[in-house]
# Entry
Amino acid sequence: MKNLTKKEQQKILDQYFLSTTEAMTLLHVTRSAVGNLGARKHLTHIPWGSGVLYFYEEVAKRAVSLGKMRHYNENIPSKDKQLQFLNRYFISKEKALTLLNISDNHFYYLILRNKITRLRKGSAVFYFREEIYQLI
# Structure
């Protein structure tokens, strides 16, 4: 994988992964229905920190099969490649705290000082791995 800018990383994150709310909107179902689809293994449930993500492709296929969508972009990398992307460019808060060996308060101080960028996708929160490693 080539090195991507932060803007490109955020764009890919938005294209390949959905929050629970985004999955609800695409499928026209309730939050519990999305959770049930994940529990029954119809959708892959990707835990990230205290949040959850879903693969766009799985949700879109389900939406097409339910008649909620006509088509979707099938030119999407494999799930393994998508997970590699997540792990290469982003880090969870828990892992960042462990690597930096700092308290929650100090971590949020770094965010407020714009030393660390916080991205939200539903309840999942992402931090750029590169920024965390620069602080070590």
Q: What stands out?
A: The chain is about 55% helix and 15% strand. Residues 6-16 form the longest helix (11 residues). The beta strands are 17-18, 45-48, 51-55, 90-91, 118-121, 124-128. The longest strand covers residues 51-55.
